[in-house]
Amino acid sequence: GGDPEQEYFADGISEDIITNLSLWRTFPVISRNSSFTFRGKSHNLKQVAIELGARYIVEGSVRKGGNRVRITAQLIDAEEDHHLWSEKWDRTLEDIFDVQDEVSEAIARRVSPSVTGHEQVRLIRKRPKNLSAWEEYLQGLNCYYNESKHTDYEDPGLTQARQHWEKAIELDPTLSDAYANLSILGSSELVQRITKDPEKTLDAILADGRRAETLNPENPLALLGIAKCYFFRGDHSTALDYAQRAVQFNPSFALSFYQQGLVQVHIGEYQHGESSILKAFELSPADPELMYFHGLLYFACLGQEKYEEALVAIDKALLRHPDVGHHLGFRAAVLGHL
Can you give the pTM of this predicted structure? Predict the structure, then answer.
C-alpha cells in the first residue's frame, strides 16, 4: 500500500476484472466507483456486502515487480460467510490478460452456474496490443479518479489523465478505451468550465467517442461519451439512443443509467427517468457522485408530482453537500407544492 507504482497497476487490474465480469451480462456487478471506496482498508465483509447490496465479494491483491506479477483472488459468499474459491497466480506481465480472463471466468461460473457456452453470452473485449500503452492508460485512470478533482476552472488530475491517454494512443492507436475515456474527460472539462472553447471541446468529445466506437462498436464508454456530446448539444433523441446502447453493452455501469435517466427527465419521460436513476443507485450505492444521483431523482419525482419523494431526494443531496446553492433553490421550489 502507498506505493503509487503498485497502486495504479492494482487499481487498473481491479477495474479490468470488474469490466470483464460486467460483460457476462447475466448478473449485476457493483460499479467501480462504489467498490473502490473500500479498497486498501480492512473491513467487515458482511457489512461491505450490506452497504453495496451485494451477496458475493471478490477480494484480492496485486503485486508487480519488474516483469513479474503476483495476483491473489478469492470469492466470498458474504451472506453465508464462507469462501467459495481462491487462487494465486505468479506470471509475467505478458500473461496479465490471460490471468484477468481466468479470474473473471472462475468467478462468473461460481456466481452464476447457468453461465455456459460463455462465448455466446459474454461480450469479448479486445486486448491491448502494446503493454506500455496499456500501462499509460492505467496511469491515466489513476489520475482521472484522483479524489482532489471536481473544482471549477482548474483540475490537474484531468490534465495528467489526458497526457497519459494521449501517450497511450501514440503507443497504440487501436486502444479504444483510451479514446473513449478522452471523450468522457472532455465532458468533465466542459462541466467544470476548464475549457476555453466549449464548441471545440464538444467536437473533440464526439471525435474521440466516434474513434473509440469505430475501434470497438460495443464499447459502452465510447457510446456514453457520444451520448454526452449529443445531450450537451440538445439532440436528446440521439443522446438517448446512445445511452440506451451503452446500457445494453454493459448493464452494470451506473453512469450509463445516470446518463439515460438524465436524458429521459429532460424529455419529460419522468417515470422512465426515475427507473434509470434508481438502477444507478443500485449499481453504485456508495458512489462519490451520489449528490448528482439524488439531484436527478428530485427532478424525476417533481415531474411526476411526487413532491414528498422529491423533497427527500433533494434533502439527501444537501446532506452530502450543504453548500450547493441551486439545491437550496430546488428545495424551496418543491416546498411550494407541499
Answer: 0.91
